[in-house]
């Protein structure tokens, strides 16, 4: 059902009026983890000031170590909802367990399925059974075919509001956190009718590569870019090294708007 052969025209994902895949690139910024109302609100203010509508923030964090910050859970979703209401933004947050999907519907606009859960088939089926857009990230070691099949799990339950997100794959290369598979973008665009995003933060893990990789993503046909922003990355409870602070975010967004591939 996700195949372009079955449906030649692009699917547009509608996030309460913000349309993904309509030809104008969209951007998702926000902290890695929701830590407090004040922290999220600071980023939201900066997102809003740019005329943007999408905000991210993790409440359920799939951390590599069980001793690392695991996220605020439902409390975090409540903070996102409050900020979304106050700043008129749409929020994206990762859900890691099928049992939290129903509850999440009250608080967030897009359910993110993270790289580590790309083949959590019960979670995919649960995401397919609700009427909410899904942002599906490519698994750390997933082939494009496996990625497309994961989206098929969602759409086969009736939900076609799916954004695919390339976020880098694990290779032998250690210069970046993961290896951004930029060619996945046109392949996914050719083989499916779904919009495609590129997460430049988790793919590179390097602040100096966010801008060139975002430009490359848009040049090669991505429908949007995701990057992490934190008011004070040095004290962030997760991904401290790779989140932009607000001045860096301002500079990043200004440069992106100057790139020839962004047409509002
Ligand atoms: C995230 O976006 O918060 C995240 C954990 O990303 P990924 O699943 O791509 O590692
Ligand atoms: Mn992160």
TrEMBL record:
Name the enzyme group at the top EC level: transferase
Q: Is the keyword Metal-binding assigned to this protein?
A: no
GO terms for biological process, alphabetical: aromatic amino acid family biosynthetic process; chorismate metabolic process
Mind listing the UniProt keywords for this protein, alphabetically? Coiled coil, Transferase
A single Gene Ontology MF term assigned here is: 3-deoxy-7-phosphoheptulonate synthase activity
EC numbers, comma separated: 2.5.1.54
Q: What is the name of the protein in this document?
A: 3-deoxy-7-phosphoheptulonate synthase
Which species is this UniProt entry from?
A: Niallia taxi
Its lineage opens with:
Bacteria, Bacillati, Bacillota, Bacilli, Bacillales
This chain is encoded by the gene named: aroF
Range of the intact protein held here: 95 to 358 of 358
């Amino acid at each position: 059902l996700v195949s372009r052969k079955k449906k030649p025209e692009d699917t547009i994902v509608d996030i309460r009026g913000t349309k993904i895949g309509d030809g104008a690139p969209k951007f998702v910024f926000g902290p890695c983890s929701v830590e407090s109302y004040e922290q999220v609100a600071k980023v939201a203010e900066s997102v809003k000031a740019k005329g943007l509508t999408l905000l991210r923030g993790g409440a359920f964090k799939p951390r590599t170590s069980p001793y690392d910050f695991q996220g605020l859970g439902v409390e975090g979703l409540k903070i996102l909802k409050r900020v979304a209401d106050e700043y008129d933004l749409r929020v994206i947050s990762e859900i890691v367990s099928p049992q939290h999907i129903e509850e999440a519907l009250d608080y967030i606009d897009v359910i993110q399925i993270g790289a580590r859960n790309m083949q959590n088939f019960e979670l995919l089926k649960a995401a397919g059974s609700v009427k909410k857009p899904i942002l599906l990230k490519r698994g750390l070691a997933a082939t494009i075919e496996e990625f497309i099949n994961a989206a098929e799990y969602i759409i086969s339950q009736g939900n076609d509001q799916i954004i695919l997100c390339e976020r880098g794959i694990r290779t032998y290369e250690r210069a970046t956190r993961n290896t951004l598979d930029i060619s996945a973008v046109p392949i996914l665009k050719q083989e499916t009718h779904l919009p495609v995003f590129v997460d430049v933060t988790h793919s590179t893990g390097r602040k100096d590569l966010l801008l060139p990789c975002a430009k490359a993503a848009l040049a090669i046909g991505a429908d949007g870019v995701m990057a992490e922003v934190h008011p004070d990355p040095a004290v962030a409870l997760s991904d401290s090294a790779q989140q932009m602070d607000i001045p860096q975010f301002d500079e990043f967004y200004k440069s992106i708007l100057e790139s020839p591939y962004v047409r509002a």
